[in-house]
Amino acid sequence: TARNLESDLVLMTATDAEGDFDLLNAPPGSYRILAESGQALLFFDTVDLPSARLELVSALGHRLEGIVRLAGGETPLPGFLVRLVILDGEVQISRDGVTDSDGGFSFGDLPSGEYGLRFSAPSPHGPFLAYPPFFEKAVDLTRDAQREDIRYPSYPAGTLRLRFLRGENGSPPGVHEGEVEIELVKHRRGGLQIGGLDSGGKRPTWKAYGTFEKLLRAGEYDFLCRSEWAGKALELRIAAAVDAGQVVEREVLFSDE
Questions:
Q1: Cβ atoms of residues 44 and 86 within 8 Å
Q2: Which of 47, 96, 175, 225 is deepest in the core (most CB within 10 A)?
Q3: Three-state SS sequence of the chain
Q4: HSE-up of 130 (CA within 13 Å, CB side)?
Q5: Contact, 244 vs 218, CB < 8 A?
Q6: The CA-based dihedral angle spanning residues 229, 230, 232, 234, taken in that order and rounded to the nearest 10 degrees
Q7: What is the pLDDT of residue 89?
Q8: Blockwise average pLDDT, block size 10, the chain, 257 residues
Q9: What is the pLDDT of residue 38?
C-alpha cells in the first residue's frame, strides 16, 4: 500500500512470484509505503517517487516488550488488552496481546519504526476502578530488543481489604472458610452518588475465600456480602470509606444468630 503524503491518494498492489511489484500511474511525490503478508508487517517507511527501481528490504527481528503498571506505584495490571498499531491515513495494521499475571506483554518479528500502543482495561469497566478504560502511548522501535515501562494513568485510589469471620454459639469468631460473594451496591464520591453499575449495566460482584482485597477509586462504598454455612444463607451489608493511598481493613462477621 502506498499513500501520497500530499494528496492522500492511496495505491495498492501485490508482489508476483519473484517478489516484484509495480505502482502504476503514481504521481511524483513522497509516499508512505506499507508492506504486509497475512497478519505480518514486513516493511513501512517513506519514499520518494518516481524511482527507477524501489527495493523494499524487510528488517524483521525487532522485539518490543514491556510491563504495564499503575502510575504512582508498582502495582502490575494483568489481563489488559494491548494493541500494537500502525495507523497511516485509512490504512491500519495491528497486532493484539494481553498482559500476563505480572503485567507483561511482548511482540516479536517487527521492523523498526514508529508504533502506537493502545491499552484497554478488562471489560466490564466501572467508575469505581482506580484507572480509566483506555490509554495510548507512542513508541519508536529502534533496537532489536526494546523494553518499555508503561505507567497506566491512575485516579486517586486506595485498597480495601475485607477479612471474613464466622461466629457461632457465643464462641470466639474464627475464619469463615466458605465462598463469599461481594456485590457493590453504592458508590459515592465527593458527596455525590456515582452509582454502582459497571459498563455492562450490572452491579459488579467478586468471589473470595477468607479475605478479599481490591484497589478502588477513592470514595465511599456500600457492599453486600453473601455466603452460606451448614445450609443456611448468610448476608451482611457493610460500608467503607476508601482514602487515596491508604489501606482500609474491615472485618466481616457472619453470625448464626
A1: yes
A2: 225
A3: CEEECCCCCEECCCCCCCCCCCCCCCCCEEEEEEEEECCEEEEEEEEEECCCCCCCCCCCCEEEEEEEEECCCCCECCCCEEEEEEEECCEEEEEEEECCCCCEEEEEEECCEEEEEEEECCCCCCCCCCCCCEEEEEEEECCCEEEEEEEECCCCEEEEEEEEEEECCCCCCEECCCEEEEEEEEEEECCEECCCCCCCCCCCEEEEECEEEEEEECEEEEEEEEEEECCEEEEEEEEEEECCCCEEEEEEEEECC
A4: 24
A5: yes
A6: -10
A7: 52
A8: 81 84 84 72 74 67 90 91 76 83 91 87 89 93 88 94 88 90 91 71 91 94 93 93 94 85
A9: 64
Q: 251: number of CA atoms within 13 Å, CB side?
A: 9
Residue with cell 509505503: 33
Instruction: Tell me how far apart the alpha carbons of residues 194 and 128 are, in angstroms, rounded to a whole number.
Output: 9
Q: What would the grid cell of residue 101 be? A: 499475571
Phi, psi of 177 (to 5 degrees): -95, -5
> Could you give the CA distance from residue 110 to residue 41 in angstroms, rounded to a whole number?
7
| Beta pairing, strands 40-49 & 62-70 | unpaired
In this predicted structure, what is the pLDDT of residue 226? 96
pTM of the model: 0.71
For 127, phi and psi rounded to 5 degrees? Answer: -70, -10
pLDDT of residue 87: 58
